[in-house]
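User: Second chain of the day. Same drill as before.
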Amino acid sequence: MGLSRIDFLPASAAQTFSGWRLILCLAGALTLLPAAVYWLVQAQETRRLEAQLAQLQPARTVRAPLSASAQRERDIELKQVAVAVRQLNLPVTRLVRTVQAPRDVRVALLGLDLNAQQGQDGASALKIAAEAATPQDMLNYLAFLNQQPMFSSVYLLKHEMSSNADAPEHPYRFQLEAQWRQ
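Assistant: Same format as last time:
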């Protein structure tokens, strides 16, 4: 039994790549050759730039964990920075305008003390030292501050009659504490 050859193409198709068709195929390959060379050059340049970029990336440093004492010092520093930032963000102008007494209440402000400590409800304390001509003016000022929406509560800490003999009316000096929300 001999091997037989099966040919699926007709005899005329075997000469497909001869003549003008071969020339057309070679012309197409020659036309695409510069594009292939350009693509290879660009791929090589991309790899070179990526390697250069990888060298320029800063190395990620791994910090050693802090000791317990160093961590406590860092926590204390962070708390101090937070307090300083909170004090810088205080609405001082608005507070001063709010505590100024109306014209019908004869009260002179002697001092304001912004306490940076916050309570559980997020309120900060403002201590006010003032002087009034009469006890009624003192109480009217206290009532005025309690009506201000900026303050959650205002209460009298202490009061005393001035012992200055030169003052004819013996004014009342008093201290208030106002809780305000930031």
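The CA atoms of residues 4 and 131 lie 126 Å apart.

User: Great, on to the next one.
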